[in-house]
């Protein structure tokens, strides 16, 4: 019989164990091994049964067992010690507080918006890299003491659980999640009723949401839930599943995330006394409507006009783009967005035309009928970044239409390379060994790994085998379970006990399965792969995982193709596909792999943090030079797969790059792994492992990433936001908006009339001084409104400037009719082809970039 209602009954803990509830509901346990040890000690068998979920453990304990534990003074003392340790972690000054003491520019709080957060497998609110990155961002912010407040949605069924049919086709199931059974707390008003956030919808409907709080160490994460009694049936389904719908359903999710998220922050601050964010960070375009809501707030509450509010919002907003693929950007029909922000749903002073203009693709090649969420994110973000150096470069080219007249290099999108949260992803055996043998300074700098007197080669290789064996055992368990789901009987599965080996070179590949990540590149030549897997002296084994979006049949066909190959009796002991890739699987998979494979179509991988997690565990990367690997591959930390750049035929390109992959594995990777010295150790391989741990270890940390965000983006955004807010009345925002309006109106009359140069002879030499004088017309604008610049550097045969520098020219003369002369000197400091040009750009101390206004007058 099917239950008509379902709820979770919470355990009433004895007084001596009451603190266990706090320990279970603060997700620090997910990366703090001693806290997990405490829960495991309570009931080891039950701990394994609930898959390491403290809330589920406490809910499953019998009252008699709780009474026994409460009567055990050692257990009570351990609970108190763990709670004291947590409180010290939460309250003691950390890196950020130490910085704040001497740097008042740091913001009091940062709102961090993301559609998904991957923190722990027991809170399945993530689908892939974007969510894992967001979870690692919050954890590292907590470790550093950065006052971030996360904002997301609570999905009733999370993403999906993946299984396979007998013929290898992906199947999705959506088990309903009970918030009361997860490490969440409902945000309540003073009278105990749930706090509610409401948004008007078309058709005189209203979308309501409750706010659940996940406590991520020191960081609160607010998750909005539309499955509440106040909603009609359709509105209750808005947060039914992550990326589960398209069109209007997706738009409503993003409306709730952006607009509802800002309103949830206001409720949070009102109820807790926490400071409201000074900086708002949009992790991808999904939450872009938060800027529209903040504009509405300022128009309604501070009496600002739309343009004035826009300047105040932009100054304090950071936008991070994560996709180098236009198809990965959410785009909605303009007419649909108009329904949500126009007509009866329009806010006074926030015209729907202005909202639509924020996401308009009004540039060459754009589609005038769609509303682009990434474009809106860039127009509302005073500071923007990609997630690796290469991705920043790709993004500048991808979005250059928003800044006409400027070369790609000046498009105001910088980069902060992603990082990963080491305490989450490094196997405990490795981190314990490092903390036991190396000083804190040696671990932080990485240099301790280069000391074989601290950790011997025998110990390091023995640990690597232990981690490989752990993966083999987990993979066998998962393969057996998968085949049982696919309909196999126990009698058919004896071969599973021989799947993989703890002594064979293990290559891992796990990620989402869009086409560009090329899951099946390894299958381009099946016989070549078969030979690598079954080599008599140097065999290779592959552990593969990944989910395809439920609507992506092409991705599902790739999985099926891979699974069918792996099912073959001749290779199934050397290659496995593990269904339902999640955080729990990853925490065994990364440490157990000797090599991490990544073979996307370059340059379509924004960053690719899975290889970072493998590196932190001593794994070597085997990757296309894309994302972070393009930035940090040094020839000794793994291998770069050559790319067939310039080959237009995609099949031909795949063939060439697959052949290069086979060659590397056969002639470099496998021989080095199996080349053993007199001690039976692969000495050269271990040198690469040590080099990887020493050099990549410090770089790939999410703490490094968060520090970069604080210093390069959050602090400047906070300073800019305060400058425009002023002491009161947003005088700075009003002045900047008025100035931009005046400049835009008058720019049609700005031009470079004539440029003169002198000071160098017929044969210019290094060290010569070039004098440049430019005569410009400014119309009604004043010299202080602009900067006249000489742009100079090396030139190509077509006279294109590359790697140029920019120097300002000084006002030299004033003439009638708004005409001026500007002049300056350049020292020729490099030999070779040299060129220069002159341009006029707007200048104002409130601009974050020379390209911000999108106006430039170049010399003809």
UniProtKB/TrEMBL annotation:
Major enzyme class: transferase
SUPFAM superfamilies: UDP-Glycosyltransferase/glycogen phosphorylase (SSF53756)
Domain DUF3417 residues, every copy: 13-123
Catalytic activity: [(1->4)-alpha-D-glucosyl](n) + phosphate = [(1->4)-alpha-D-glucosyl](n-1) + alpha-D-glucose 1-phosphate
Annotated positions of the N6-(pyridoxal phosphate)lysine modification: 613
Domain of life, per lineage: Bacteria
Entry's family note: Belongs to the glycogen phosphorylase family.
UniProt-recorded name of the protein: glycogen phosphorylase
Lineage: Bacteria, Bacillati, Actinomycetota, Actinomycetes, Micrococcales
